[in-house]
Amino acid sequence: MRIGLFTDSYRPSINGIVYVVESLKRELEALGHEVFVFCPAKTINPSKDDDQTDNGHIIRFPSLKGAFFDDYDTSIFFPPRELLRIKKLELDVIHIFTPSQIGLIGVRASHKYEIPCVIQHCTDMYEFAEHYPAVLPGILALAGIIFPMSVKLKARDIGKIVRLYRPRGVTKWNKDIIETVITMLYSKADAVIALSRKSRDQLLSWQGQDYRYDITLMPNGVNALPRPSDSKLAEFRQRWGFRASDEIFGFVGRLGEEKNLDILITAFDKYIAKARPKSKLLFVGDFEYRKVLEEKAAATKYADRIIFTGALPREELGVVYETLDVFCFTSLKDTQGWVLHEAAHASKPIVIIDRQVSEVVRDGESGIFVNNKPKSVADGVIKLLGSPKKRQEYGAMSKKLASKYTERRQVRKLETLYQEVIDQRASA
Protein backbone atom coordinates (compact mmCIF):
# COMPACT_ATOMS: atom_id res chain seq x y z
CA MET A 1 0.00 0.00 0.00
CA ARG A 2 0.95 3.66 -0.45
CA ILE A 3 -0.04 5.31 2.82
CA GLY A 4 -0.23 9.00 3.73
CA LEU A 5 0.11 10.00 7.41
CA PHE A 6 -1.16 13.55 7.97
CA THR A 7 -0.10 15.25 11.21
CA ASP A 8 0.18 18.84 12.46
CA SER A 9 2.86 17.77 14.93
CA TYR A 10 6.15 16.13 13.98
CA ARG A 11 9.88 16.28 14.54
CA PRO A 12 11.65 18.23 15.91
CA SER A 13 8.66 18.50 18.30
CA ILE A 14 8.58 15.84 21.03
CA ASN A 15 5.19 14.50 22.09
CA GLY A 16 2.98 11.43 21.92
CA ILE A 17 1.67 12.10 18.41
CA VAL A 18 5.20 12.39 17.06
CA TYR A 19 6.17 9.07 18.64
CA VAL A 20 3.06 7.40 17.23
CA VAL A 21 3.61 8.66 13.68
CA GLU A 22 7.28 7.66 13.75
CA SER A 23 6.39 4.24 15.09
CA LEU A 24 3.70 3.62 12.48
CA LYS A 25 5.93 4.77 9.64
CA ARG A 26 8.75 2.50 10.75
CA GLU A 27 6.57 -0.57 11.30
CA LEU A 28 4.48 -0.13 8.15
CA GLU A 29 7.64 0.20 6.05
CA ALA A 30 9.01 -2.95 7.71
CA LEU A 31 5.89 -4.73 6.43
CA GLY A 32 6.66 -3.57 2.90
CA HIS A 33 4.38 -0.52 2.59
CA GLU A 34 5.41 2.87 1.20
CA VAL A 35 4.68 5.62 3.74
CA PHE A 36 4.56 9.41 3.31
CA VAL A 37 4.40 11.80 6.28
CA PHE A 38 2.76 15.20 5.73
CA CYS A 39 3.79 17.61 8.50
CA PRO A 40 4.85 21.20 9.40
CA ALA A 41 8.25 22.51 8.33
CA LYS A 42 8.67 24.46 11.61
CA THR A 43 9.57 27.49 9.50
CA ILE A 44 7.82 29.78 7.04
CA ASN A 45 10.64 29.31 4.51
CA PRO A 46 11.56 25.63 4.40
CA SER A 47 14.63 24.65 2.43
CA LYS A 48 14.15 22.85 -0.86
CA ASP A 49 16.37 20.18 0.62
CA ASP A 50 13.56 19.40 3.06
CA ASP A 51 11.59 17.90 0.18
CA GLN A 52 14.31 15.25 -0.11
CA THR A 53 14.08 14.18 3.53
CA ASP A 54 13.79 10.41 3.65
CA ASN A 55 13.85 10.29 -0.17
CA GLY A 56 10.85 12.59 -0.45
CA HIS A 57 8.71 10.65 2.00
CA ILE A 58 8.62 13.46 4.60
CA ILE A 59 6.58 16.26 3.02
CA ARG A 60 6.72 19.51 4.98
CA PHE A 61 4.45 22.55 4.79
CA PRO A 62 5.57 26.12 5.68
CA SER A 63 4.35 26.89 9.20
CA LEU A 64 4.16 29.43 12.03
CA LYS A 65 4.57 28.39 15.63
CA GLY A 66 1.57 28.73 17.94
CA ALA A 67 -0.70 30.92 15.79
CA PHE A 68 -3.76 29.06 17.12
CA PHE A 69 -2.59 26.47 19.67
CA ASP A 70 0.59 26.72 21.74
CA ASP A 71 1.52 23.10 21.15
CA TYR A 72 0.89 23.06 17.41
CA ASP A 73 2.36 24.72 14.36
CA THR A 74 -0.05 26.48 12.02
CA SER A 75 0.77 25.51 8.46
CA ILE A 76 0.36 27.95 5.60
CA PHE A 77 -0.07 26.65 2.08
CA PHE A 78 -2.08 27.01 -1.15
CA PRO A 79 -4.59 24.10 -1.00
CA PRO A 80 -5.08 23.56 -4.78
CA ARG A 81 -1.34 23.14 -5.32
CA GLU A 82 -0.93 20.79 -2.35
CA LEU A 83 -3.95 18.74 -3.41
CA LEU A 84 -2.35 18.14 -6.80
CA ARG A 85 0.85 17.19 -5.02
CA ILE A 86 -1.06 14.62 -2.99
CA LYS A 87 -2.89 13.33 -6.07
CA LYS A 88 0.39 12.57 -7.86
CA LEU A 89 1.43 10.24 -5.02
CA GLU A 90 -1.53 7.92 -5.81
CA LEU A 91 -2.13 7.08 -2.17
CA ASP A 92 -4.16 3.99 -1.31
CA VAL A 93 -5.19 5.26 2.12
CA ILE A 94 -4.99 8.50 4.13
CA HIS A 95 -4.51 8.42 7.90
CA ILE A 96 -5.27 11.62 9.87
CA PHE A 97 -3.85 12.29 13.35
CA THR A 98 -4.76 15.94 13.99
CA PRO A 99 -7.88 17.96 13.09
CA SER A 100 -5.98 21.08 12.07
CA GLN A 101 -4.57 22.43 8.78
CA ILE A 102 -2.62 19.40 7.58
CA GLY A 103 -5.16 16.92 8.89
CA LEU A 104 -7.94 18.77 7.11
CA ILE A 105 -6.11 18.95 3.78
CA GLY A 106 -5.80 15.17 4.12
CA VAL A 107 -9.58 14.88 4.57
CA ARG A 108 -10.12 17.16 1.58
CA ALA A 109 -7.79 15.04 -0.59
CA SER A 110 -9.61 11.91 0.52
CA HIS A 111 -12.97 13.23 -0.67
CA LYS A 112 -11.68 14.92 -3.81
CA TYR A 113 -9.75 11.91 -5.07
CA GLU A 114 -11.90 9.17 -3.45
CA ILE A 115 -9.06 7.88 -1.27
CA PRO A 116 -10.14 5.88 1.82
CA CYS A 117 -9.64 7.92 4.99
CA VAL A 118 -8.90 6.78 8.56
CA ILE A 119 -9.01 9.32 11.40
CA GLN A 120 -7.31 8.59 14.70
CA HIS A 121 -8.60 10.42 17.79
CA CYS A 122 -5.24 11.27 19.38
CA THR A 123 -6.07 14.25 21.60
CA ASP A 124 -8.81 15.03 24.09
CA MET A 125 -9.57 18.44 22.60
CA TYR A 126 -11.56 19.38 25.67
CA GLU A 127 -8.22 19.98 27.40
CA PHE A 128 -7.82 23.10 25.27
CA ALA A 129 -11.21 24.34 26.38
CA GLU A 130 -10.59 23.76 30.10
CA HIS A 131 -6.91 24.52 30.47
CA TYR A 132 -6.19 26.87 27.57
CA PRO A 133 -9.36 29.00 27.18
CA ALA A 134 -7.43 31.66 25.29
CA VAL A 135 -7.42 29.42 22.20
CA LEU A 136 -11.07 30.35 21.50
CA PRO A 137 -10.14 32.64 18.54
CA GLY A 138 -8.18 29.78 17.00
CA ILE A 139 -11.01 27.31 17.53
CA LEU A 140 -13.47 29.77 15.99
CA ALA A 141 -11.17 30.22 13.01
CA LEU A 142 -10.84 26.44 12.69
CA ALA A 143 -14.61 25.97 12.75
CA GLY A 144 -15.62 28.94 10.63
CA ILE A 145 -12.79 29.39 8.14
CA ILE A 146 -10.29 26.53 7.89
CA PHE A 147 -12.75 23.65 8.30
CA PRO A 148 -15.30 24.86 5.69
CA MET A 149 -12.49 25.64 3.23
CA SER A 150 -10.91 22.22 3.66
CA VAL A 151 -13.83 19.83 3.90
CA LYS A 152 -16.79 19.54 1.55
CA LEU A 153 -19.80 20.58 3.63
CA LYS A 154 -23.51 20.14 3.14
CA ALA A 155 -26.11 22.80 3.87
CA ARG A 156 -26.93 21.30 7.28
CA ASP A 157 -23.19 21.33 8.15
CA ILE A 158 -22.91 25.03 7.38
CA GLY A 159 -26.03 25.77 9.40
CA LYS A 160 -24.58 24.06 12.44
CA ILE A 161 -21.31 25.97 12.11
CA VAL A 162 -23.13 29.30 11.85
CA ARG A 163 -25.00 28.56 15.08
CA LEU A 164 -21.68 27.99 16.84
CA TYR A 165 -20.96 31.71 16.59
CA ARG A 166 -23.57 32.60 19.20
CA PRO A 167 -21.46 33.76 22.19
CA ARG A 168 -21.69 31.98 25.55
CA GLY A 169 -19.28 31.22 28.41
CA VAL A 170 -15.77 30.75 27.01
CA THR A 171 -15.25 27.18 28.21
CA LYS A 172 -18.71 26.03 27.11
CA TRP A 173 -18.27 27.86 23.81
CA ASN A 174 -14.96 26.06 23.17
CA LYS A 175 -16.49 22.70 24.06
CA ASP A 176 -19.54 23.19 21.86
CA ILE A 177 -17.35 24.03 18.89
CA ILE A 178 -15.00 21.10 19.50
CA GLU A 179 -17.82 18.62 19.90
CA THR A 180 -19.66 19.79 16.78
CA VAL A 181 -16.66 20.09 14.48
CA ILE A 182 -15.04 16.81 15.56
CA THR A 183 -18.31 14.88 15.18
CA MET A 184 -18.95 16.43 11.78
CA LEU A 185 -15.40 15.73 10.63
CA TYR A 186 -15.24 12.14 11.87
CA SER A 187 -18.56 11.31 10.23
CA LYS A 188 -16.86 11.91 6.87
CA ALA A 189 -14.16 9.29 7.50
CA ASP A 190 -14.21 5.66 6.37
CA ALA A 191 -13.00 4.57 9.81
CA VAL A 192 -12.35 6.24 13.17
CA ILE A 193 -9.86 4.87 15.69
CA ALA A 194 -10.24 5.40 19.44
CA LEU A 195 -7.15 4.63 21.50
CA SER A 196 -9.01 3.78 24.71
CA ARG A 197 -12.44 2.90 26.06
CA LYS A 198 -12.55 6.40 27.49
CA SER A 199 -12.13 8.03 24.07
CA ARG A 200 -14.56 5.61 22.44
CA ASP A 201 -17.25 6.45 25.00
CA GLN A 202 -16.59 10.18 24.64
CA LEU A 203 -16.96 10.06 20.85
CA LEU A 204 -20.12 7.97 21.11
CA SER A 205 -21.65 10.49 23.52
CA TRP A 206 -21.08 13.30 21.00
CA GLN A 207 -22.95 11.57 18.19
CA GLY A 208 -26.51 12.49 17.32
CA GLN A 209 -29.01 11.55 14.64
CA ASP A 210 -27.36 13.80 12.04
CA TYR A 211 -23.81 12.50 12.43
CA ARG A 212 -22.96 8.90 13.20
CA TYR A 213 -19.93 6.73 12.52
CA ASP A 214 -18.43 3.44 13.67
CA ILE A 215 -15.48 3.47 16.07
CA THR A 216 -12.65 0.93 16.21
CA LEU A 217 -10.94 0.53 19.59
CA MET A 218 -7.24 0.16 18.80
CA PRO A 219 -4.55 1.36 21.24
CA ASN A 220 -1.24 2.46 19.76
CA GLY A 221 1.47 -0.15 19.97
CA VAL A 222 4.44 0.61 22.20
CA ASN A 223 7.69 -1.33 22.41
CA ALA A 224 9.84 -1.74 25.50
CA LEU A 225 12.67 0.76 25.85
CA PRO A 226 16.22 -0.63 26.01
CA ARG A 227 17.26 -1.53 29.54
CA PRO A 228 20.08 0.69 30.80
CA SER A 229 23.51 -0.61 31.66
CA ASP A 230 24.52 -0.77 35.31
CA SER A 231 26.91 2.13 34.76
CA LYS A 232 24.20 4.32 33.18
CA LEU A 233 21.83 3.52 36.02
CA ALA A 234 24.47 4.32 38.64
CA GLU A 235 25.34 7.56 36.85
CA PHE A 236 21.69 8.67 36.78
CA ARG A 237 21.11 7.86 40.44
CA GLN A 238 24.28 9.63 41.49
CA ARG A 239 23.48 12.70 39.42
CA TRP A 240 20.11 13.15 41.12
CA GLY A 241 21.14 12.08 44.58
CA PHE A 242 19.27 8.78 44.84
CA ARG A 243 20.52 6.33 47.47
CA ALA A 244 20.03 2.57 47.27
CA SER A 245 17.53 2.73 50.13
CA ASP A 246 15.39 5.48 48.56
CA GLU A 247 11.82 4.71 47.49
CA ILE A 248 11.18 6.57 44.28
CA PHE A 249 7.83 7.27 42.66
CA GLY A 250 6.82 9.77 40.02
CA PHE A 251 5.88 10.66 36.46
CA VAL A 252 7.49 10.79 33.02
CA GLY A 253 6.04 12.98 30.28
CA ARG A 254 4.93 16.48 29.40
CA LEU A 255 4.57 18.69 32.45
CA GLY A 256 1.37 20.38 31.30
CA GLU A 257 -1.35 21.79 33.53
CA GLU A 258 -3.86 19.30 32.15
CA LYS A 259 -1.74 16.39 33.43
CA ASN A 260 -3.05 17.02 36.98
CA LEU A 261 0.45 16.67 38.45
CA ASP A 262 -0.15 19.09 41.32
CA ILE A 263 -1.95 16.29 43.11
CA LEU A 264 1.31 14.33 43.40
CA ILE A 265 3.03 17.22 45.17
CA THR A 266 0.12 17.65 47.57
CA ALA A 267 -0.09 13.93 48.25
CA PHE A 268 3.64 13.80 48.94
CA ASP A 269 3.69 16.87 51.17
CA LYS A 270 0.65 15.93 53.25
CA TYR A 271 0.89 12.16 53.50
CA ILE A 272 3.61 10.20 51.67
CA ALA A 273 6.76 12.00 52.83
CA LYS A 274 6.00 11.43 56.51
CA ALA A 275 4.66 7.89 56.10
CA ARG A 276 7.63 6.83 53.96
CA PRO A 277 10.66 8.83 55.20
CA LYS A 278 12.94 7.49 52.44
CA SER A 279 10.52 8.29 49.62
CA LYS A 280 11.28 10.79 46.86
CA LEU A 281 9.09 12.25 44.12
CA LEU A 282 10.56 12.39 40.61
CA PHE A 283 9.30 14.41 37.61
CA VAL A 284 10.94 13.74 34.24
CA GLY A 285 9.81 16.03 31.43
CA ASP A 286 9.26 19.66 30.58
CA PHE A 287 6.64 22.15 29.41
CA GLU A 288 5.36 25.55 30.45
CA TYR A 289 3.69 24.26 33.63
CA ARG A 290 6.98 22.95 35.03
CA LYS A 291 7.75 26.34 36.60
CA VAL A 292 4.44 26.28 38.52
CA LEU A 293 5.12 22.76 39.75
CA GLU A 294 8.61 23.72 40.87
CA GLU A 295 7.23 26.68 42.81
CA LYS A 296 4.66 24.46 44.51
CA ALA A 297 7.33 21.90 45.33
CA ALA A 298 9.60 24.58 46.79
CA ALA A 299 6.78 25.69 49.11
CA THR A 300 6.43 22.22 50.67
CA LYS A 301 8.18 20.93 53.80
CA TYR A 302 10.03 18.37 51.71
CA ALA A 303 11.29 20.39 48.74
CA ASP A 304 14.69 18.63 48.83
CA ARG A 305 12.95 15.31 48.13
CA ILE A 306 11.12 16.48 44.98
CA ILE A 307 13.31 16.23 41.87
CA PHE A 308 12.80 17.75 38.41
CA THR A 309 15.22 16.47 35.76
CA GLY A 310 13.80 18.31 32.76
CA ALA A 311 13.20 16.59 29.43
CA LEU A 312 15.30 13.59 28.41
CA PRO A 313 15.54 11.92 24.98
CA ARG A 314 13.13 8.99 24.76
CA GLU A 315 15.94 6.54 24.05
CA GLU A 316 17.42 7.47 27.45
CA LEU A 317 14.24 6.99 29.46
CA GLY A 318 14.95 3.35 30.22
CA VAL A 319 17.18 4.50 33.08
CA VAL A 320 14.29 6.52 34.54
CA TYR A 321 11.83 3.63 34.55
CA GLU A 322 14.49 1.37 36.04
CA THR A 323 14.99 3.92 38.84
CA LEU A 324 11.29 4.26 39.67
CA ASP A 325 9.68 1.93 42.19
CA VAL A 326 6.14 3.14 41.36
CA PHE A 327 4.87 4.97 38.27
CA CYS A 328 2.05 7.47 38.80
CA PHE A 329 -0.40 8.61 36.13
CA THR A 330 -2.71 11.36 37.35
CA SER A 331 -3.96 12.80 34.06
CA LEU A 332 -7.67 12.77 33.29
CA LYS A 333 -7.17 14.22 29.79
CA ASP A 334 -5.10 11.62 27.93
CA THR A 335 -6.54 9.42 25.20
CA GLN A 336 -4.18 6.51 25.91
CA GLY A 337 -0.98 7.37 27.75
CA TRP A 338 2.08 6.19 25.82
CA VAL A 339 4.18 6.39 29.01
CA LEU A 340 1.88 3.90 30.73
CA HIS A 341 2.97 1.28 28.22
CA GLU A 342 6.64 2.22 28.66
CA ALA A 343 6.30 1.89 32.43
CA ALA A 344 4.44 -1.42 32.08
CA HIS A 345 7.13 -2.81 29.75
CA ALA A 346 9.66 -1.88 32.46
CA SER A 347 7.71 -4.00 34.98
CA LYS A 348 6.52 -1.04 37.03
CA PRO A 349 3.43 -1.13 39.27
CA ILE A 350 1.17 1.78 38.40
CA VAL A 351 -0.99 4.15 40.44
CA ILE A 352 -3.62 5.66 38.15
CA ILE A 353 -6.71 7.85 38.46
CA ASP A 354 -8.33 7.42 35.02
CA ARG A 355 -9.79 3.92 34.95
CA GLN A 356 -10.54 3.70 31.21
CA VAL A 357 -7.49 5.23 29.60
CA SER A 358 -5.29 2.14 29.29
CA GLU A 359 -5.53 -1.59 28.71
CA VAL A 360 -2.23 -2.25 30.52
CA VAL A 361 -3.45 -1.30 34.02
CA ARG A 362 -5.70 -3.63 36.00
CA ASP A 363 -6.74 -2.73 39.50
CA GLY A 364 -5.28 -5.12 42.05
CA GLU A 365 -3.26 -6.95 39.38
CA SER A 366 -0.81 -4.53 37.75
CA GLY A 367 -1.69 -1.34 39.57
CA ILE A 368 -4.04 0.49 41.87
CA PHE A 369 -6.97 2.65 40.77
CA VAL A 370 -7.29 5.72 42.98
CA ASN A 371 -9.65 8.68 43.19
CA ASN A 372 -8.77 12.20 42.12
CA LYS A 373 -7.93 13.22 45.70
CA PRO A 374 -4.47 13.63 47.32
CA LYS A 375 -5.27 11.20 50.14
CA SER A 376 -6.41 8.49 47.74
CA VAL A 377 -3.32 8.94 45.55
CA ALA A 378 -1.13 8.87 48.66
CA ASP A 379 -2.76 5.67 49.93
CA GLY A 380 -2.03 3.91 46.64
CA VAL A 381 1.60 5.02 46.56
CA ILE A 382 2.19 4.20 50.22
CA LYS A 383 0.68 0.75 49.80
CA LEU A 384 3.06 -0.11 46.98
CA LEU A 385 6.15 1.49 48.47
CA GLY A 386 5.55 -0.50 51.63
CA SER A 387 5.36 -3.86 49.87
CA PRO A 388 8.30 -4.97 47.68
CA LYS A 389 6.50 -8.28 47.08
CA LYS A 390 3.38 -6.57 45.75
CA ARG A 391 5.49 -4.28 43.56
CA GLN A 392 7.17 -7.34 42.06
CA GLU A 393 3.87 -9.14 41.45
CA TYR A 394 2.19 -6.08 39.94
CA GLY A 395 5.26 -5.32 37.84
CA ALA A 396 5.25 -8.81 36.36
CA MET A 397 1.61 -8.43 35.36
CA SER A 398 2.34 -4.97 33.90
CA LYS A 399 4.98 -6.45 31.63
CA LYS A 400 2.67 -9.30 30.60
CA LEU A 401 -0.13 -6.88 29.65
CA ALA A 402 2.22 -4.52 27.80
CA SER A 403 3.50 -7.41 25.66
CA LYS A 404 0.01 -7.70 24.13
CA TYR A 405 0.26 -4.21 22.64
CA THR A 406 3.62 -4.06 20.91
CA GLU A 407 4.13 -1.88 17.84
CA ARG A 408 4.20 -4.83 15.44
CA ARG A 409 1.04 -6.43 16.89
CA GLN A 410 -0.96 -3.20 16.69
CA VAL A 411 0.32 -2.24 13.25
CA ARG A 412 -0.81 -5.63 11.94
CA LYS A 413 -4.31 -4.74 13.17
CA LEU A 414 -4.04 -1.31 11.54
CA GLU A 415 -2.92 -2.92 8.28
CA THR A 416 -6.08 -5.05 8.38
CA LEU A 417 -8.24 -1.96 8.97
CA TYR A 418 -6.60 -0.18 6.02
CA GLN A 419 -7.41 -3.12 3.75
CA GLU A 420 -11.00 -3.21 4.99
CA VAL A 421 -11.67 0.45 4.13
CA ILE A 422 -9.96 0.04 0.76
CA ASP A 423 -12.14 -2.98 -0.03
CA GLN A 424 -15.28 -1.18 1.16
CA ARG A 425 -14.56 1.74 -1.17
CA ALA A 426 -13.87 -0.60 -4.07
CA SER A 427 -17.16 -2.45 -3.60
CA ALA A 428 -19.29 0.66 -3.01
Question: What are the key terms here?
Answer:
428 residues, Rossmann fold, 2 domains, 15% strand, globular
What does this structure look like?
This protein is an alpha/beta fold and 428 residues long. The chain has helices at residues 16-30, 79-88, 101-113, 126-131, 136-150, 155-163, 170-186, 197-206, 230-239, 262-275, 290-298, 318-323, 338-345, 374-385, 388-402, 407-427; strands at residues 2-6, 34-40, 58-61, 63-65, 73-75, 93-96, 117-121, 191-194, 215-217, 247-252, 279-284, 306-308, 326-329, 350-352, 367-369. Strand 11, helix 11 and strand 12 (306-308) form a beta-alpha-beta unit. It is globular, with a radius of gyration of 22 Å. The mean pLDDT is 88.
What's the helix count? 16
Helix content: 40-55%
User: Main β-sheet: number of strands, strand sense, barrel status?
Assistant: 7 strands, parallel
| Strand residue content | 5-15%
What is the CATH superfamily label of the largest domain? Glycogen Phosphorylase B
**Rg over C-alpha atoms, rounded to the nearest angstrom:** 22 Å
Counted up, domains total 2
Structural class: alpha/beta
